[in-house]
Design goal:
With 431 residues, this protein is α/β, with parallel strands linked by helices. The chain is built from 20 helices and 12 strands. The strands form 3 sheets. Strands 1, 2, 3, 6, 11 and 12 form a 6-stranded mixed beta sheet that branches. The structure holds beta-D-galactopyranose.
């Protein structure tokens, strides 16, 4: 059974259960399920909460801890099965289409807001299509993250005798050797499947380029998935794993980020939500830390669009529907787009803002990100992140995660065998 029908079967059971209405206050309330729970991320989501509350609605926080969101997705599915989905939930990429096909997302709620606020004019088609189901907006996109970043503590680099950020894998390994020799953790990392695959997809991008990345991890082309270039990517992944701290199992990404911020480690491979931790620690981009594309990926941009999907509510819950609409309107407004992304480490989704980032007061990392996003859109360098739910169904992603994490945790694992295993992650590529 494919992932859509599996989800649909589970959801159809929901009809056996009564809908438990959320207690609404006079103006209406909205419960938001999300996984923005690190210090920096909480600061970002609090901006949305404050604005919705200022508009007179009640915000019910449905935060579910766990980076990458797999725990949040499990909670969301069981709530849907119990007939008690929240008003709004963080859902991304092709998963939005799967939820759309269950009939649980509303295709009406956002219609008027999207029209009045001209969402079609504000968003690039790539972004708009991600959050539409059969032509209707079912989610509001809040920001764009770039995944293929390397975060560097320059003070640690200096102590280890490294004078510049690495731009090739060879330079990366040379920097890693120096950091290790000087007693630092070379590469901070948390051993969780989504973090392992964040590193893996960077390496695939570096070794195979954006075209190879697309063939392998987006189109799921069987030959490319199991071919010699993929085996090479696994060989490099093995080398990179050797620069990670051996006690990394289960560590959250923000704890790994804290090791770099606090000077225990030299580098971290992580999407730019990592910047939210640097910002929360009052560190300045370009001075206290450096953000550079992961070596070999400077002509590419793996994107991760955070979006908030809107669930269908009974028509008599007018106040709660108004709260969903208010949240959506706020989320794409200029003020929110700016303050949220500055806190979150991302860039806005609005093309007018992406084209004018210096006027908006964004730092050097965000300005570089917006410039590359726009440039890479034209060259094919802009690719959806597999590790962050943008490229495949969650079922295929889960199968890839297993291969990658098993490989990284087995020092005797064979790169050619691992790439052969990828072949079985997806017998029928998604269309
Ligand atoms: C991503 C999400 C980001 C950030 C990160 C770490 O999937 O898009 O916004 O939350 O996980 O949890």
């Amino acid at each position: 059974m494919n992932a859509i029908s599996r989800l649909a079967t589970v959801i159809s059971l929901a009809s056996l259960f009564p809908l438990s209405a959320l207690a609404a206050d006079s103006k209406g309330s909205v419960e938001v399920v999300h996984w923005w729970t690190s210090g920096g991320e909480k600061a970002a989501v609090d901006v949305l909460k404050a604005q919705v509350e200022k508009d007179g609605f009640t915000w019910k926080d449905g935060a579910v801890a766990g980076g990458g969101g797999s725990t949040a997705m499990t909670v969301l599915k069981s709530r849907a099965v119990a007939g008690n989905p929240p008003g709004v939930a963080q859902i991304k990429g092709p998963d939005i289409q799967e939820w759309g096909s269950t009939g649980l997302l509303s295709t009406d709620t956002l219609k008027d807001v999207a029209k009045a606020e001209n969402w079609d004019g504000l968003l690039s088609p790539k972004v708009a299509n991600t959050v539409k189901y059969e032509g209707d907006y079912v989610a509001v996109p809040v920001n764009i993250h770039r995944v293929n970043w390397l975060w560097i503590n320059p003070a640690v680099f200096k102590k280890a005798g490294i004078d510049k950020a690495p731009t090739t894998l060879e330079e990366f390994y040379a920097a890693g050797d120096k950091l290790k020799a000087a007693g630092f953790i070379a590469l901070a990392h948390g051993g969780q499947p989504w973090q392992d695959s964040t590193v893996f997809e960077d390496v695939v991008l570096s070794v195979m380029g954006p075209e190879g990345y697309k063939k392998a991890l987006v189109d799921l082309d069987q030959k490319t998935l199991s071919g010699p270039e993929m085996a090479k990517a696994f060989t490099e992944l093995k080398k990179i794993t050797g620069y990670m701290d051996p006690n990394r199992a289960g560590r959250d990404w923000n704890i790994a980020a804290a090791d770099v911020i606090g000077g225990k480690a030299g580098m971290q491979m992580m999407g730019d939500w990592a910047k939210s931790e640097w910002t929360a620690a009052k560190k300045v981009a370009g001075k206290d830390y450096q953000c550079v594309p992961f070596p070999g990926t400077d002509k590419a941009f793996t994107y991760n669009i955070d979006s908030l999907a809107v669930f269908k509510l009974k028509a008599d819950r007018k106040g709660d529907i108004a709260a969903q609409q208010d949240l959506a309107k706020v989320a794409l407004g200029k003020d929110f787009q700016k303050v949220f992304s500055i806190n979150k480490g991302s860039i806005p989704v609005r093309t007018d803002m992406l084209n004018d980032m210096s006027a908006e007061g964004f730092d050097s990392c965000a300005q570089a990100s917006a410039k590359d996003f726009l440039a890479d859109e034209k060259t094919g360098g802009l690719q959806p992140s597999m590790a962050h739910n943008m490229a495949t169904s969650l079922a295929v992603q889960g199968a890839i995660f297993d291969v990658v994490t098993n490989f990284m945790n087995d020092k005797d694992a064979d790169p050619a065998k691992a790439s052969a295993c990828l072949l079985y992650t997806s017998p029928s590529p998604r269309d």
